[in-house]
Amino acid sequence: MLTEKFLDGQVVLITGGGTGLGKAMAMECASRGANIAIAGRRQEILDETAQILAKSGVKVLTIKTDIRNPDDVQQMVDVISNEFKRIDVLVNNAAGNFICPAEKLSINGWNAVINIVLNGTFYCSSAAGKLMIAQGRGNIVNIVATYAWASEPGVIHSASAKAGVLAMTRTLAVEWARYGIRVNAIAPGAFRTEGTEKNLWGEAEQRDRMSRRIPQRRFGEPNEVAHTLLFLLSDYSKYITGEVITVDGGGWLGKGTYEIADVQEFLK
What we know:
With 268 residues, this protein is α/β, with parallel strands linked by helices. The chain has one domain: NAD(P)-binding Rossmann-like Domain (Rossmann fold). The protein contains 10 helices and 7 strands. The protein has a 7-stranded parallel sheet, with helices on both faces. The longest helix has 29 residues, at 107-135. It is globular, with a radius of gyration of 18 Å. It starts with 10 loop residues before the first strand and ends with a helix.
């Protein structure tokens, strides 16, 4: 059983930490004693979440950051290093996605997602990783998606980017193991968050149809991803690196039961 404050004194950086899954992961880490740095592009959202996190009695740092910009990312890491003198955990959670058939996807739409998901993850991993190498330990967790390997219509931009992040996860795990750094990934399935409600799941009827495609017949709760993160940050997983844990209610395993008509309708 995980001790209540097993992250006590550690510094956890979560990109996209102001909302959705990022917020849920930040709250769980704070409840286990970690000092939290959350980064994102909307300062007001970060500040609102920081007020909630501070109730756990930990130190909270908010940093307005555009992870598509490597200079922004380096400044973010420098600010955290100056404040806390270390980064123990990096959670690459920031992402961008929208549904679009491949033949209708613009170059700008492609680049927007690739720059956030793939390039942004590398910029953050590179900048924080150098600090972790210097301190002789670290833990990086990348948030990917099952369609990075299982495919899904309408998300060719995000699927390509997430597949790249999955390859990055495994490569960094091999390269950085000698520095005491573990690198793993979590692949959430369908979750109900503010972002997915706005960009992915659509109206209630569409959400119901999507949930019926999941073997557990429900969307996931954000804390179910957050609890998986806690496992990857604990000593229970200290011999695990380069792996991806799927948290999707059996979704990708049950793809053979999906009706193609549902997918075609979803893309209209």
